[in-house]
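Q: How would the C-alpha cells look for this protein?
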Amino acid sequence: MIATYKLLIADDHPLVRDAMARVIREAYADAEVIEVEDFDAALAHAQQDPDLDLILLDLNMPGMNGLTGLLKLRNEHPTIPVVIVSAEENKQIILQAVSCGAAGFIPKSLPRDQMRHAIAQVLEGNIFLPADAMRAPDSIRKRRHQEQGFTAEQLRQLTRKQLQVLEHMTRGESNKMIAYHLNIAETTVKAHVSAILRKLGVTSRVQAILSANDIDFSQFLKR
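A: Here is the predicted structure in C-alpha cell form.
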C-alpha cells in the first residue's frame, strides 16, 4: 500500500512554492500539497489540520521573525515535523534551526533530486542537514565549548570507529551515507550511533551533532 502524504508549503514567493510542489509531486504523485504565503496562515492551517505529515517553512517570510516562528509552531504542534527552507546557508543558522526543533534544513539552492531526497528523509522519520553547508568551516566560534561541547574524557570513551561515525554525523550525513563512506553495514552504523549517544550522555542525534560541532576530530583519531 502506497503512503499518501499531506504537506504544507509556507513561502511568500509563488515561484518557490510552485517549484517545491512540483518536486514533491514528482516523488509522491498522490500527495496533497497545501500552499500558504505567510507564517500566520501556516499556523492557522496547522491548527485546523493536525494530521499534516510535514510543514516546509520559509525562514524569512512575513510573520516568521527569524526562528521565533519555528519555536511557536513547534510548541503549539509538536507532533508535526517542520523543515526550514531558506536561501540562507550559514552553518550556525542551520544548527540553531535544528536546535529549535526543525526536522531538517533545506537550502533553496539544493538541486531538485537532492531536495526530493531531503523530503523523503524527513518523511521517513530522519533529520536532514545539507552536507555541503555542514562541512563548511564555522565563521563564528564564540560559543564556549565548555557550555555545550563534550569533554576530552567523554570523547576518549568512544572507539576509533565511533569517532569516525560521529565526525560524519556532524557533516549532516545520513546513516546510509556514513555506511558508504566508512565501508560498513548500515545496521553497524545504527549500533555505533546508539553507543555514541549512550557514552556521551545525550538523548538524540541532534544533541550529539550540536555538541560535537566544534571538535577537532584529527586530535582524537591520531590514537
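Confidence is low (pLDDT under 50) at residues 139-147.

DSSP finds 13 helices and five strands in the chain.

Upvote if useful.
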